[in-house]
Fold this sequence. Notes:
Radius of gyration: 18 Å
Low-confidence stretches: none
Bound molecules: zinc ion
Number of strands: 8
Amino acid sequence: MGKKREVDDRFRKFGTVSFTSVTKINDFIDYLEKGKVMGSTCKNCGLAFFPPRADCYQCLQSDMEWFEVSGKGRLITYSTLKYAPVGFGDDLPYSIAILDYNAYKVFGRIDGLIPEEEIKVGMEMVTRVNRLPKGHLNYIFQKP
Ligand SMILES: [Zn+2]
């Protein structure tokens, strides 16, 4: 059986990337609550990031400023899921997509109220805050 650990953290070793509730970009959530979807720009080299990053992988500096994802982006690809990971099954079917804003791209989900036949690669869409049950927040792509 082995000795019981105080904190069972064995899954810390699983995979290469983990989700964490503690990040350097927690202001992202405050902005969502204010109705704004934000990315970050490196003040040193000008590279824009979405999702926002606190550290620039291009020049390795950490001097960042926030910018708002606003205006229209162009839908460059999407995929409609008929099978989803655990926890997302109730949302099926839904479409994940990438909008191109020129200086950066935004990966996200298309508003489920838009019929699939109206989704066309090349169409313009906007990124908007989406309020979920229990006070949770995310963002979705909608028609302008
Ligand atoms: Zn940089």
